[in-house]
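Field notebook, page 538. I keep forgetting to write these up properly, so this time I am using the form the group agreed on. The chain and the ligand, protoporphyrin IX containing FE, are recorded exactly as supplied. Prediction of the bound pose follows.
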Amino acid sequence: RGPETYSPTGQLTGTAQKEVAQGGERLTTAQGTRLYDTNHSLKAGPRGPVLLQDHHLREKITHFDHERIPERVVHARGAAAHGVFQGYGSAARLSKAAFLGKDVETPVFVRFSTVLGSRGSADTVRDTRGFATKFYTSEGVFDLVGNNIPVFFIQDAIKFPDVIHAGKPHPDREIPQAQSAHDTFWDFVTLHTEATHHTLWNMSDRGIPRSYRMMEGFGVHTFRLVNADGGTTLVKFHWKPKLGVHSLVWEEAQITCGMDPDFHRRDLADAIEAGAFPQWELGVQTFPDTEEQMFEGIDLLDPTKIVPEELAPVQPIGLLTLNANPSNYFAETEQVAFHVGHLVPGIDVTNDPLLQGRLFSYLDTQISRLGGPNFAQLPINRTHIPVNDMLRDGMHQTAVHRGVAPYRPNSLDGGCPFLAGADTGAYIEVPAEVPAARKVREAPASFDDHFSQPRLFWLSMTPTEREHIAAAYTFELSKCWETAIKERALLVLANIDAELCAQVAAGLGLPAPEATVRPAAVEPSPALSQLGQTWPAD
Ligand code: HEM
């Protein structure tokens, strides 16, 4: 277990793959017994019945019968690549994480995905995209499990099953497969108006990226960085593509869905194969780690809010380059398991209630998706440094553990340095204050403003981008059966902007309602608009 099974870019080497199932020159059973014929079943005579005693036949078909594992409950369709992350060293004052050090190179595996469609769905649908990065650092695995949209639909993880049930195909007809155009989705996002901001981003050009190589990525939540002196800073992570941010127009997206449903995965794989390695800069917006965890009136624990870059510029801290395609989709892209709780010293979480729920969800779902608790032993998930844990047994255990005393301290397995000097290089949680409080279920009042930031986004768009947004709402809402849902959606739009509401209402042939909420006055943010981004000279 370790680096010898990987190429320098982190890709599985041929030997690692072959040593398990493809060693030697001759075809064998899984037990290594040589076969002389894999094309004919054992029968009682050339025209007779097939015999139950044909172990090779049964092993071959039984294995095939179980080739499929459950797809991810969300983000089922994805494409991935290996690469390297190089720290600039500029984050050293913020975080002691070794991989952020100057010129430190860390192998990474990045998986891009759509959220709602099944594994076989089309790539260029209107949806959020996942942007998940696994850093195999010298201090353990760090996962940055983000999206291409900087806000989320809900403020509390307890609603995650609900928003996904609303977004997935209707339970009766299993329609639609991968688009947000149906009654349950619009029912949910108009009744839970904290979803307005994310939905608006989905209806904008950001919902149909031109390429995975031309998408931004966002950690969404606020994280806490810790430096060598114990000083802490709150941050939001951003990935900025070197190729700029570009989208398809709706007609292109639709045609591409039909002509080439694999458009995005093909684009990524082809670019890497041709040596046009995509690159992103990792950056952080930084905020003082105050007791309130607010910045310029924005609640940093509310995952439906951004902090405009005009207020907190994104500071570059490293460069990601994707330079190798997976050699086996199943072993790598399908079996990779990301988790927001995979942290390294120097990076910690905050109390964002959405993030807190995610800390539970990923491990739980992966136990069922990957058939038990030992998926960290799969080559793609293994850290590149030695592991010495006390986890034992379980389904698909591949380690042969030594010793008799998997507990600490013990006096039988040669003792253990766990208690003495354990803090050297160990992950230590920031002893952040938990305010004395009574147990409550309600959210803070600062989570209540659902319309000011959608309005900020709308006002930041160019006329062309606004046209696309109005057309997207009109198209998607026109697919709803229930007039009451369309009317409620128009009310949500009226609370963002009267012009947007009027355009969509006209498209749907319904009256435009009056706003019921007055969003805060906001200044447009040029950084939110995609137009003005240029293609690189080469
Ligand atoms: C999968 C991002 C919220 C549960 C994923 C993946 C990404 C992602 C990128 C795909 C990982 C991969 O490529 O394998 C996000 C972001 C969120 C968010 C950015 C909000 C800011 C949540 C919440 C929950 C959740 C609130 C549950 C409470 C899951 C589950 C999977 C998943 C169960 C499937 C994991 C697997 O089977 O390996 N998420 N997610 N996510 N997410 Fe989230």
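OBSERVATIONS:
- Residues 72-75, 78, 111, 113, 130, 132, 145-147, 152, 157, 160, 220, 303, 336-338, 354, 357-358, 361-362, 365-366, 369 surround protoporphyrin IX containing FE (CB under 6 Å).
- The two ends are 41 Å apart (CA to CA).
FOLLOW-UP: compare against the apo run.
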